[in-house]
Amino acid sequence: MTFQFNYEAIEPSEFAYEEMIRKVIEACLDYEECPYEAEVSILITDNTVIREINNEFRGIDAPTDVLSFPTIEFLKAGGFNEIDENTGNYFHPDTGELLLGDIVISMEKAIQQAKDYGHSLEREIAFLTAHSMFHLMGYDHLTEDDSSIMEMKQGQVLNQLQILR
Predict the structure, then answer these.
(1) What domain range is 120 assigned to?
(2) pLDDT greater than 80 at residue 54
(3) Residue 16 contacts by C-beta under 8 Å, 6 or more apart in sequence?
(4) pLDDT at 14 over 70
(5) Residue 14 domain-assigned?
(6) Is 92 labeled as ligand-binding?
(7) Nearest to 2 by CA among 106, 135, 95, 138
């Protein structure tokens, strides 16, 4: 698995965030039984940068906690069986890895939300990573049923990793 990681936030991290994020990404891929080696890009930034990205790509001029930019448009969420090595530009030409997409996390928002929800920053970053990974694998929360499915999957991955509230 290729894990491209950039930390551009001003706030220092209190824990081994890169290692923990990698574990969450791998656990999400295992949970969904992804049959491919994958590539995921992570950017940890601040509210100013995520606000600019949110405005540019979603037309929302406000900071948010996490943004997901999936490479694949799944017909069915988690439908890895729809994909093969001959499918479009979904695979890196040199490594052969499945290009899942990009995750952008605001460290400022994560710090605030960890305080608001009364849990650790590690748990908040893990949650945002899991949430975004399920978006990269085609899941969404536009309906109540879809939201319940995503919440269940995120919760099971975090419980499996013993990253609890």
Answers:
(1) 2-160
(2) yes
(3) none
(4) no
(5) yes
(6) no
(7) 95
d(CA 75, CA 52): 30
86 belongs to a structural domain: yes
Nearest Cα residue to 131 out of 24, 31, 7, 40: 24
Residue 110 amino acid letter: A
Is the pTM value of this prediction over 0.70?
A: yes
pLDDT reported for residue 4: 93
Q: Is residue 165 part of a domain?
A: no
What CATH number does residue 110 fall under? 3.40.390.30
Query: Is 135 labelled as part of a ligand binding site?
Result: yes
Give me the count of residues in the chain.
165
Kindly report, residue by residue over 66-82, the tens digit of the pLDDT. Answer: 999 999 989 899 999 88
Residue 70 lies in a domain: yes
